[in-house]
Each structure stands twice: as C-alpha cells, then as structure tokens.
Amino acid sequence: MAKPLTTVYWKSEKAWLGKLIEYPTIMTQGETLEELEEELEENLKDAHTLMVMEDVPRGLRNQGNRPVKRGELIRQLTEAGCVLHRHGARHDTYLNPANGQKQPVPPRAEVDDTLAKHIKKHLGLGG
To answer: What is the topology classification, in CATH, of domain 66-122?
Structure first.
C-alpha cells in the first residue's frame, strides 16, 4: 500500500500552485485545483524516472559521454513522431502517441548522452 503524501497548495492571481512535502523538488501549477492535483501526480511519476546527471557526482558519471543539445534531442523526438505532452517548470514531458509512453526532458541547454539515450529508449525509439 502506498504511503499517503502531504500536498501544500495555494491560489495565486493566475493559477493554483502546489508542492509535495515529502518531495520538496516537486512543485507545479494548474489552472484548477483538479489540474494541479493531476500535475503533481504526473510530476511524481516523472520524478521516479528522471535521472538528472547534474546531481550525480562527477567521479560517478560515465566518462566520455558527450552532452546532447536539448534542441537536437527535441528535434529527434519530434521527427520520430513524439509530441510535447506537458510543459512544466522543472521539465517538459514528451509523449510517443504510437505506444503511449511518456518521458520527462530536463529544461537545461545540454542533456547528458546517457540520459538522452534513456529518454529515447523509454519512448520506444531505440537508444
């Protein structure tokens, strides 16, 4: 049985904002409270699959990996038929409509090669 999570949310002038206390890096927004709850759930799922290489100590990173420009990764995803599913503050989520698979893509300018391969593999595009 899943442990219940604590959600803190509030209404700003333009949207509902919220975060999960147990996962302080997960914070998002929605136009309605229901949309905010859906976004928080989606962010939690994405957090379990997103490997942020910047957080991995340099000595433990795969040496020799070349970073991939984010624009190049997005171009590869869209040319393969993937679409932007959701834009978020911490990452965007891309969807492969052919198989229903979704993967987060971090917003930074360069994405570690290992992470780029992981994203493409889990979207069903090979690696």
So the answer is: Metal Transport, Frataxin; Chain A (3.30.920)
